[in-house]
Write a structure and sequence with these properties.
The structure is a single chain. Strand 10, helix 11 and strand 11 form a beta-alpha-beta unit. The longest helix has 20 residues. A seven-stranded parallel beta sheet has the order 8-7-6-9-10-11-12, covered by helices on one side. It has a five-stranded parallel beta sheet with strand order 2-1-3-4-5, covered by helices on one side. The protein has 324 residues and is of the alpha/beta class. 35% of the residues lie in helices and 15% in strands. The protein starts with 6 loop residues before the first strand and ends in a 10-residue tail after the last helix.
Length: 324
């Protein structure tokens, strides 16, 4: 494909203040034609997508399938919810359209984000900071015995994609017991990984449950009331996957009863979480606004990831982060 001039359709969000990422993309595509759109639904954008060879951003999958020329879509996110449906996936395979995501951009920040919360909860940092911001009490006699070492505690990862793999690398030096479940076990994973059907047997063993599941038909309310009820008293729940995979009402009950020690949510259902939602005031529930994957050079890394895959696509090599 080295001599083929490609038409590249792009609707990637470069943010309110582009700091050179568009120039980086423009120079990086070289001989190829680059068409950038901010409005997905304009007639001009849809016409261009229909005649493009490559799409970069997050095009509507139904519109992608209307194109006779499109051969590769790179999504600007790690998630690919709207593409993750059996019928759609089969259509993409039949049409020979490759789909890649940007897991390589977001695995590091998301893994560091979860690590930060695991460590801060173990060391009682939120409780100490809450005292600083309120009554300024010196809670040494309360917080010292409540602080825990992570050594020997068990982490159960729901999902074992790029984020989970990086999180395993970060947690390994802490001498924790690391387990995971996933849809398809290869046997080559660096920790003990089980078929997802085994999750009910594994939940009672977990001190920490890290939910990194994508949103699709199979994962809706995966961590439901029954499964939350299988957790040992004092377990902590983390969700950095998608809000629809967790029963938030059941989580709220578990937190208010004290059976679940704490929860950290970077994703919720809906987003933004309404101010009146009970999880905002649930004890030991810590919420960040879907910021886990964010980092100062996020857009630059998105572009560089796309350009690396473009070079691979040009020479017919295996694409990075291929999901379809």
């Amino acid at each position: 494909m080295n001599n083929l001039k490609l038409t590249i359709w792009c609707n990637n969000d470069f943010g309110p203040k582009d700091c050179g990422e568009v120039d980086l993309l423009t120079s990086g595509v070289g001989q190829h034609q680059l068409l950038i759109f901010s409005d997905n639904d304009s007639s001009e954008s849809l016409s261009a997508l229909n005649n493009a060879h490559v799409a970069f951003g997050y095009p509507d999958p139904q519109q992608v399938l209307k194109s006779e020329s499109l051969r590769w879509v790179q999504l600007n996110s790690a998630g690919y919810t709207s593409y993750d449906h059996k019928e759609l996936k089969q259509e993409f395979v039949t049409r020979g359209i490759a789909v890649t995501n940007s897991s390589a951009v977001f695995d590091e920040p998301c893994a560091q984000h979860v690590l930060a919360m695991i460590m801060s909860l173990a060391r009682q940092l939120p409780a100490a900071l809450a005292a600083q911001r309120t009554d300024k009490s010196w809670r040494m006699n309360e917080l010292r015995p409540a602080s825990r070492l992570l050594n020997g505690q068990t982490v159960l990862l729901l999902g074992f994609g790029a984020i989970a793999r990086r999180l395993v690398e970060l947690l390994t030096p802490l001498q924790m017991n690391l387990l995971a479940v996933r849809r398809h076990v290869s046997g080559a994973e660096p920790i003990e990984v089980f078929e997802i059907a085994k999750v009910d047997e594994l939940l009672p063993r977990a001190d920490h449950v890290v939910n990194i599941l994508p949103a699709n038909d199979e994962t809706k309310l995966f961590l439901n009331e029954a499964r939350l009820g299988r957790l040992k008293p004092g377990a902590i729940v983390y969700n950095i996957g998608r809000g629809t995979t967790l029963d938030q009402e059941a989580l709220n009950k578990g937190l208010r009863s004290g059976r679940i020690a704490a929860a950290y949510l970077d994703v919720t259902d809906p987003e933004p979480l309404p101010p009146e939602h009970p999880l905002w005031t649930a004890p030991n529930c810590f919420i960040t606004p879907h910021s886990g994957g964010g980092h100062s050079n996020e857009k630059e890394r998105q572009v560089n990831h796309f350009l690396e895959n473009l070079r691979r696509f040009e020479r017919g090599a295996e694409l990075l982060n291929r999901v379809l």
